[in-house]
Amino acid sequence: MHQPEHLKSAGLKSTLPRLKVLDLFENSKERHLSAEDVYKQLLNSGEDVGLATVYRVLTQFEQAGLLVRHHFEGGKSVFELNQGEHHDHIVCLQCNHVEEFFDTAIEARQEKVATALGFAIRDHSLHIYADCTKKKCPHKRRKMAPTY
Amino acid sequence: MHQPEHLKSAGLKSTLPRLKVLDLFENSKERHLSAEDVYKQLLNSGEDVGLATVYRVLTQFEQAGLLVRHHFEGGKSVFELNQGEHHDHIVCLQCNHVEEFFDTAIEARQEKVATALGFAIRDHSLHIYADCTKKKCPHKRRKMAPTY
DNA sequence: TGTACGAATGATAATCGTTCTTATTTGCAT
DNA sequence: ATGCAAATAAGAACGATTATCATTCGTACA
Question: What confidence tens digit (pLDDT) does each residue in B120-140 have?
């Protein structure tokens, strides 16, 4: 477990809540978690964290570059581990599962378009909302609130 | 003024608040308005509408296909007239002005990617957040809350 | 042209995700 | 060990949005 170094190098004290949150993202089945998701999972694991702390920690991790924040439809922020390579998202409308993809052509065209309009891209988000074409959606249907 | 027909054909009674909101979108300088924007502008015009009504009407118009809703960063929904042709958005980080664009290559690649992953696209949103490359941002700086 | 009835409205309470406040606890350098 | 700044938990506060409900309005029909 090399997490304490992650935190230190990010200029953050190595505290229990922070370690737990980081651990959750590194070991959870779902890559994409909302604050509420993180909070509930920690409570279920017997941890005693406050919701406010979860929000604070997630924001700090985002600023430290450990996590990436996404705004899918539905009003709540969703976070995932920052593993360097940028990617876009396709959200299954049946089960809310998130698939990641990266397309060089799309990225390149975005640069071209922005340049043509006189802008320098700082960030972008491309979300595709789609239906599975398979007869039975292979993604496990979620009973709880969508996690994205 | 052919608005009453718009409403009728959408299965909506032609009421004063609805006419006023539609009129605002058709005549406002800004294409992109939030619920709060609409509410304030109507109040400034001397109309006596309730905020709840504005939210209700905007949602109905979205469902009727008269308006399109966008979720830019910042937590609030922004609406614009639905004029048929889909387009994506580039948001100026200096002034929050929204520029629209459409790129066939990007659209095509999205289809390709989705198909390859076994999805049928139902909707998508591409938001580019960028800085103006001109020395002075040509877009009027907003003093009020961002309208996008 | 009036009228009745259901739909639409405005005021306000409630909800949801998130942030702020504050008293208390914790990490860690000394 | 000890002190102090930083971090925490609990809950209040917040902004955007939705729900509730009594009142008003639009319109089909007499």
Answer: 999 899 999 998 887 666 664
For B7-50, the pLDDT digits (tens) are 888 889 999 999 999 999 999 998 999 999 999 999 999 999 99
CA A80 centroid distance within chain: 3
Q: Buried (b) or exposed (e) across A87-123, using 16+ Cβ within 10 A?
A: ebbbbbbbbbbbbebebeebbebbeebbeebbbebee
**Hey, are the CB atoms on A129 and B122 less than 8 Å from each other?**
yes
What is the distance in angstroms measured between the alpha-carbon CA of A16 and the sugar C1' of D10?
A: 18
Contact A130 B110 (CB under 8 A): no
- Tokens 């809540």 label which residue? A17
Beta bridge partners of A123: B129
- Going from the C-alpha of B12 to that of each of A10, A126, B4, B5, the distances in angstroms are 55, 33, 9, 10
B76 and A CB contact within 8 Å: no
pLDDT tens column, A51-63: 999 999 999 999 9
Average pLDDT over residues A46-72: 95
Q: What's the Å distance between residue A124 CA and nucleotide C27 C1'?
A: 38
Amino acid at B40: K
Residue B40 has which token pair? 């304030």
